[in-house]
Amino acid sequence: MIELGNRVIMVTGASSGIGRECAIQCSRVGASVALVGRDVGRLEETRSRMSGARHCVVRQELTAFGELGGMVGRVVEELGPVSGLVHSAGSQMTRSLGRMEAEGYAEMFSIHAVAGFELARWICRGENRAAGRVSVVLVASMMGLVGRPGLTAYAASKGAVIAGARAMAVEMAGKGVTVNSVSPGMVMTPLMEGYLAGLTEEQAAERRAQYPLGPGQPEDVAQACVFLLSDAARWITGTNLVMDGGCSAG
Ligand SMILES: NC(=O)c1ccc[n+]([C@@H]2O[C@H](COP(=O)([O-])OP(=O)(O)OC[C@H]3O[C@@H](n4cnc5c(N)ncnc54)[C@H](OP(=O)(O)O)[C@@H]3O)[C@@H](O)[C@H]2O)c1
Prior knowledge:
Layout: E1 8-12, H1 17-28, E2 32-37, H2 40-48, E3 56-59, H3 68-79, E4 84-87, H4 102-123, E5 134-139, H5 152-172, E6 177-184, H6 190-197, H7 201-209, H8 218-229, E7 240-243
Parallel strand pairs: 1-2, 1-4, 2-3, 4-5, 5-6, 6-7
Helix pairs in contact: 1-8, 4-5
Bound molecules: NADP nicotinamide-adenine-dinucleotide phosphate.
């Protein structure tokens, strides 16, 4: 039985796509959710689709690292100590190596890797953390494992998420914290639609054809995240779960 009753879960990227669906699915199995993102209107829209009433909306630019401790503290005041994190906030960058500049790498690493690691640090700290097991799920990407043209910065930052989660898992195992990453392939969200819009029709069709089960939906990833947050996954840590509709199996 997968349930998150009486647990407070922080979900970043909750205003759209995978994060939005994670928040909704967490609420359906009993969690109180802190919905973190920048667009309050879309965060409220997510909240309106959730079960239960004990949730809060948090407007936060996640690369403002100096503000994250205070933000976690406010969530704890409102909902209570935190026992789980899904870090799904992220953005896309397709840029050939020749057009890439250092700022682009910094942007990708900041939101995908550093923000996730910092949030994990803050929720595991003293009075912020709930008694019992704390579970951290970082949304990486299949691009952290394979390459595609124009994705050097994005792919490298997702590789960093996978490696960082693994190291954190080993460090935190004795402290009752599990840390895992998930690596989705093509999932139909605004981010993916943006990426596909930059390709020719032929290239986009070619990408889709690489998925024996077809492209994924946000709920496909969200269900795996809920499982990793739950006690059903208490013995799983340091894992990177590839979810790609069979793409990498072929
Ligand atoms: N879709 C795919 O095919 C796919 C595949 C593999 C991995 N992923 C990963 O899955 C995660 C979610 O992607 P998605 O497809 O759900 O994207 P999405 O629909 O574009 O949603 C991205 C979310 O991230 C938030 N966000 C972005 N930058 C932020 C920042 N600096 N501070 C705070 N919030 C920020 C956005 O918040 P606001 O809109 O409120 O600003 C939004 O809620 C990303 O890490 C992405 O790399 C996606």
